[in-house]
């Protein structure tokens, strides 16, 4: 079924333009992707595997870039802003001060500025939490470079922090507890 959704992108005959062939092309004339939020790179391979695409149809698609497949589609989120973060998880009885870095769970945050709602979704699963926040803000993440290329990993050890910048200028850090409460 995935082969019917994707086809090679059209090519141009203008020789003055440098042609870069896309890996995939989404063949859906009714869908306009408004924003792409790539997930932080895998700490083992250094590659980004997932991306969140928000579209004009009010959906967010969690997309596996390696396979070229949609992993999950979240509907009813018109105007969504997306950012990725991660939370450390510790096994019960483990020493939190050990030298090895703890395992992390990748979380997609979906902010709906018109409704003032922030949702948290596990990368391959469903929604794990939602909370009311200020309306009209902006969701930013350390990972996407909006805070400057040199800031990546400075405050969160490479995990990628997420903040909401409210319309009045107040900045709130988004934190998720181990019980998945936002």
Please, could you describe this protein's structure?
With about 180 residues, the chain is mostly beta strands. It has a single domain, classed as Lipocalin. It has one helix at about 1-5; strands at about 35-40, 50-55, 60-65, 70-75, 80-90, 105-110, 115-120, 125-130, 140, 160-165, 170-175. The strands form three sheets. Strands 1-2-3-4 form a four-stranded antiparallel beta sheet, with no helix packed on it. The chain has a four-stranded antiparallel beta sheet with strand order 5-6-7-8, with no helix packed on it. A hairpin with a 5-residue loop joins strand 10 (about 160-165) and strand 11. The model is unreliable at about 1-5 and about 150-160 (pLDDT under 50).
* CATH topology label: Lipocalin
Number of helices: 1
Which CATH architecture is right?
Beta Barrel
The neighbouring-strand order within the major sheet is 1-2-3-4
Number of domains: 1
Strand content: 35-45%
Distance between the amino and carboxyl termini: 36 Å
What is the CA-atom radius of gyration, in angstroms? 18 Å
Low-pLDDT segments = 1-7, 150-158
- So what's the CATH class? Mainly Beta
Largest sheet: 4 strands, antiparallel
The backbone outline, from C-alpha atoms, is globular
Order of helices and strands: HEEEEEEEEEEE
The tally of beta strands, per DSSP, is: 11
Structural class: mainly beta
Mean pLDDT: 77
Protein name: Rab3-GAP regulatory subunit N-terminal domain-containing protein
Pfam families: RAB3GAP2_N (PF14655)
